[in-house]
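INPUT
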Amino acid sequence: MTALLKLDDISVSIGNLGLLDRISLSVGRGQVVGLVGESGSGKSLTAMAAIGLLPLIGGRVTKGTVRFDGQDMAAMTETQRRKLRGARIGFVTQNPMTALDPVQRIGEQVDVVSRLHLGLSRADARARTLDLLTRLRIPEAGAVVDAWPHQLSGGMKQRIVIAMALAGDPDLIIADEPTTALDVTVQAQIIQILGSLVRERGVALLLITHDMGVVAQVCDRVAVLYAGRLAEEGPVGPIFAAPAHPYTAALIGCIPQDGMAKGSLTGIPGAVPSAAAFPAGCRFHPRCPRASDLCRNTPPMIVHRTAGQVACHHPGEAE
Amino acid sequence: MTAPMVKIDALSKRFQSGGGLFAKPRTMMAVREVTLSIGKGEVLGVVGESGCGKSTLARLVLRLIEPTSGRVTIDGTDITALSAGALRRIRRRMAMVFQDPYSSLDPRYSLADVLAEPLRLQGEVIAPARVDEMLASVGLPAALAASHPHQLSGGQRQRVGIARALALKPDFVVLDEPTASLDVSIQAQIIALLADLRDRLGLTYLFISHDLGLVRYFCDRIVVMYLGSVVEVLPDTRTAPRHPYTRALMDSNFAPDPARRRVIEMLTGEVPSPFALPPGCAFATRCPRASDRCRRDTPALGGDAAHPVACFHPL
Amino acid sequence: MIAPLRALRRPQGAVAGLWLILVICAALFAPLLTPYAYDIQNLPNAYQPASAQHWLGTDEFGRDLLTRLIYGARTSLSVSATAISISVFCGMVLGASAAWFGGWLDRIVTMTVDLTWSFPEILIALILVAIIGPGTTGVMIAISVAYLAQFTRLTRAQIMTLKGETFIEAARSLGAGNAHLLFRHLLPNALAPVLVSAMLATGDAIILEATLGFFGLGAQPPVPSWGGMMSAGSALVFKAPWVIIFPGLAVAITVVAINLYGDALIAELDIRSRLRREA
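OUTPUT
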């Protein structure tokens, strides 16, 4: 499978502050890739770098290339990039309340996307909207298109935002914590719907989340970030079965599970360092149970394995 | 179970919203006839989604808001009948940890001020070493005593919030989603700290959360609420749920194991507005098992006394 | 370092602050700074332009203009500052009680305040001076009432927002009563925006005081005030323009300085959004 979006060894800075360091990952069509890590690990920044939005926050790619469908993003003009984002990339943000225009009816907001990007007539756009809403399991889609955003619940609004992201027939969807603001039962539904729609339509999905449970449920691959570096990347099956990086293992271990003995959930000691205070060597070493002198002094190289990559001096050893 | 620490008896809270010159105020029952008891040293979990009344319940139990009806008895004292002065004095025996570690600390206070405040409020003089001791008890270095909240991370702030709640050595602590705004790695740290403090100090907890997985890990007994009412009380963490809503909550929790992927049985329908509840069971609009009876009559919490459930068609 | 000092490190804050310190010192130490008296007439000496003896010239009675300007600063600053202090104090008491106790008290306060808010300050002040009678005390009361609405509104808005903060609930859960919540949490947190807005209002009050003085309603002759001096100078615009120009400049520069310094302080305290919320 050729990658639709390919980040090749990119580093990102804002001013003199290096925030991301040598991150490689790719997302293929019909594939769901999870981008996980604690807050401050660089997830959202990676996504912004992927679609050339860094200038908005004063950042720049200092090293490496980002390719979308084979094209080098850095070689494009800003107009081309803007067109690419508009026509071929869909976004789902954390807060659906801010993504919808409060003074426009739901149907019109979804219609306009396909009219603009696919050149559909009003009638065709509306038919497409109704079809999308039905696929998103929105009951009474015919009534919902005439509703105002404030009349819908949070979960319903987020489904509308997903519909808007899908309406222009994008190749890639970037979803930044799409369910964090929602209730748990609704959250589960949205994740499930999003996963199946993406596969059904051959869209690539980059899913930013902090929840390893969500990753396990819906993703094909996962990239674990820590303090601006890639800790581990690869297919979910092997990574969850036997995480090579202690940070991956720790993140998985933070999720309470059925039958877990009391006291076995201890979390990860300490906190993510700020970009101005990244420690020397492996950035995870102050919080790592396996840290050795090597880890304290030398940053680990990224080792490519058969299906993925890992950056650890002591990968996959028993705790 | 030993003698109960907390007894909640038919507690209800009605809220009015809106209303003014031209609009008629709308009312909703945020908490409806809730009866519970919490044993000494027990961790009772209350779980439910937004709008289920769990945070209102937490505030009612500590009488931070006045109930519309019902009673709360803490270690034999009916706190709903106390005068304002007596209530302020008995507050040393109960405390609360709040969800948002950012707004729960006065930005102008240093940590030493934050931790001294409860003692001052109860007319005690605070020894300087006491602050260091309190910081140490929640795993924070004494050097932080002079810092202000904005200099701390979310996890550190929540530790301060816990230290403040325990400053007066209470017997009973209400934990209102203490980890909901923290990273999972920090959540696990805080939960471990709370468990440790309970063992060391013999505390009784009322733990409010939206996360059934977390509640099942941390709590001894679990109360499930939906739109203001208790729908099920799970006697322990292993018992299988009998209410379809509890089942749905449980299914919504993804295990971090791709091998255990599953297709979730979708809840169809929408959550009704709490201002305009339909007759019958409040969950009927989303329930896969709902019958005509569910849409007509309201099921009472009943059945097995140890594992009561409010459902006409339990699993 | 505290915010008022940090504001001095910003360029515009430094220039403005320097001017304000100069004016305040001049007002405080007026008798030490000038060999002339502000009130002794010397008619042969009238209408002198600037010279080595009289740096800013003399007025129609031959009095040294710089001396009168310095004494005028005394009147202008003390009247405006006192008036605003009274206004801030009363506004905070009213606004805080309205926000804290709510109910009918809040409704009455809000209604009254909104009513006065809809009139320009100058109109309120003119009506009040007309009732009380001209003079420094009258002007002081008039200005303080004219600005009462602003501080009541601001304080009320601040307390209303702070009331919903979790730390208030946390203090209550530990046994705090009304007095503790108001004086230990709510008012200290509301103070910074109110004080900054008071400082900016002092600038407006100086203009208001000068205006009332211009109409002859402020400090009565021979006591100088900037407004009174401009009023006297308005008849001499062509004969001795400096008599009106210098007090006019004094008002303008001082008011601009107060605003510039106030802006620096707002930036330093990071409270721009909190000030906007009320307006």
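end of record. The interface with chain A takes residues 49-50, 153, 155-156, 183-192, 195, 210-214, 216-218, 248-249, 251-261, 263-264, 266-271 of chain B (CB under 8 Å).
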